[in-house]
Write a structure and sequence with these properties.
The chain is α+β, with helices and mostly antiparallel strands and about 170 residues long. About 20% of the residues lie in helices and about 35% in strands. It is built from three helices and ten strands. The strands form four sheets. A four-stranded antiparallel beta sheet has the order 6-9-3-10, with no helix packed on it. Helix 1 runs antiparallel to helix 2 and helix 1 packs across helix 3. The radius of gyration is 19 Å and the shape is globular. The relative contact order is 0.24.
């Protein structure tokens, strides 16, 4: 049998021991600093964003800010629950209602066809999604801003483990 004696992880170009002789040493996470809220905000969707509403895949033409935000909130909530044993106590209904009021000022989104073959399932899997960019006015998003900012680090929507749903913000 093979036994694990020591495990190290490269963090900021420095190797740190995270496991040694049956003892896991948790790594302290860095505190996230949220940038100040800008007047307008452009979202760059860098990898296909695959979202659903009422069991229907959202295409570029029907995409709205709330489609993105609801997925951001869901993703942050799940990460918090699974990795911190901490359920976020938020008024989800209120935040989602706020997100539905946010209007997109400019939108250049398109649908990207993408697939991969699963040898386990012996079939092609669709990884299609929305790509491009859109801009919103930020006057109504003060309460949403921390989640939007954090969402850049988490990926959102379906197939995040495959790298889908990554966005960055340009202020």
């Amino acid at each position: 049998p093979i036994e694990l004696d020591t495990m190290e992880q490269n963090i900021n170009n420095q190797w740190k021991t995270i496991y040694q002789q049956d003892f896991w040493q948790p790594i302290q996470s860095e505190k996230l600093t949220v940038a100040p809220l800008p007047r307008s905000l452009t979202f760059h969707i860098n990898t296909p964003l695959r979202t659903k509403s009422q069991n229907h895949i959202i295409k570029a033409e029907e995409f709205s800010f709330s489609h993105l935000f609801k997925n951001v909130l869901r993703r942050i909530s799940m990460i918090s629950a699974f990795h911190q044993d901490n359920l976020l106590e938020l008024d989800y209904k209120y935040l989602n209602e706020l997100s539905e009021k946010v209007e997109i000022i400019n939108k250049t989104l398109y649908w990207k066809e993408l697939s991969r073959y699963s040898t386990r399932q012996k079939r092609r899997l669709h990884l299609d999604g929305v790509l491009g960019e859109f801009t919103i006015n930020t006057s109504d998003i003060t309460e949403l801003w921390p989640y939007i900012w954090l969402g850049q680090s988490t990926h959102v929507g379906k197939s995040t483990s495959m790298g889908l749903g990554q966005y960055t913000l340009n202020q």
